[in-house]
Amino acid sequence: MPINCAVLLSGSGTTLENLMGCIARGELDVTIQCAVSSRRDAYGLERARNNGIPAEAVHKGDYARWEDFDAALWDRVGAYSVDLIVLAGFMSLLSVPERFVNRIMNVHPGLIPAFSGKGMYGRRVHEAVLAYGAKVTGATVHFVDEEYDHGPIILQECVPVLDDDTAETLEARVQAKERELYPRAIQLFAEGRLRVEGRRVHAL
Predict the structure, then answer these.
(1) Which residues are catalytic?
(2) Residue 174 contacts by C-beta under 8 Å, 6 or more apart in sequence?
(3) Domain locations in the chain as residue ranges
(4) 0.85 exceeded by the pTM?
(5) For residues 152 and 53, what is the distance between their CA atoms, to the nearest angstrom?
(6) Residue 35, C-beta contacts closer than 8 angstroms, at least 6 positions apart
(7) Which CATH architecture has domain 1-95?
(8) Whole-angstrom Cα distance, residue 144 to residue 103?
(9) Residues of the chain with pLDDT under 70
(10) Across the strands, what pairs with 86?
(11) Which CATH number is correct for 106-193, 2.60.130.10, 2.40.30.110, 3.30.430.20, 3.40.50.170?
(12) Contacts of 203 (CB under 8 A, 6+ apart)
């Protein structure tokens, strides 16, 4: 029996596209109930609609206070029956209602806790990795709490940093790892195989 997910996004929706592909191939026991964006012009909303998924925006710029935006977002998500919230390039901090503790996932393009936290997203992470001279980077799937890139880690794998890497080439390799790890973590959740003990997540 598939679990129900809501996907929150802010941009082009490539992560959403990857998840929809996994579902179509029978690799992911998930039904995407809705896609909600923090921007009206996010192309991810169009991707969702093209696949018959209800899609709507809660535009962050319409709210003077973060608390009001956050409340409106949860009000919109609350209109759907969902078991898991999947962040797919969602560019805002979230509150975590009690019913969604350890039921919100995110993927980060680095090895948390390195190169993570507020302002560290997308290509900025890869630029920082290269500037530091790190030899490895990677991708991390984690549960979301009320701090940036801070919740318990579900899956994490390394990607080598090559001598001739640019931010663009490194980003492409890390994104390939994200496309592999994120569906795997979601499927573990769907199968009821994740157990959280403090900051440690065990896959049964």
Answers:
(1) 108
(2) 109, 110, 126, 137, 138, 139, 159
(3) 1-95, 106-193
(4) yes
(5) 29
(6) 6, 7, 8, 9, 13, 16, 44, 45, 47, 48, 53, 54, 55, 56
(7) 3-Layer(aba) Sandwich (3.40)
(8) 8
(9) none
(10) 7, 105
(11) 3.40.50.170
(12) 154, 155, 188, 193, 194
Which tokens belong to 193?
Answer: 């195989």
**Residue type at position 15:** T
Q: What pLDDT, on a 0 to 100 scale, did the predictor assign at position 187?
A: 98
How many Å from the N-terminal Cα to the C-terminal Cα in the chain? Answer: 19
Q: What is the 3-state secondary structure (H, E, C) of the chain?
A: CCEEEEEEECCCCHHHHHHHHHHHCCCCCEEEEEEEECCCCCHHHHHHHHCCCCEEECCHHHCCCHHHHHHHHHHHHCCCCCCEEEEECCCCCCCCCHHHCCCEEEEECCCCCCCCCCCCCCHHHHHHHHHHCCCEEEEEEEECCCCCCCCCEEEEEEEECCCCCCHHHHHHHHHHHHHHHHHHHHHHHHCCCEEEECCEEEEC
At residue 124's C-alpha, the angle toward residues 123 and 126, to 5°, is 65
pLDDT tens digits, residue range 54-82?
A: 999 999 999 999 999 999 999 999 999 99
pLDDT at 122 (0 to 100): 94
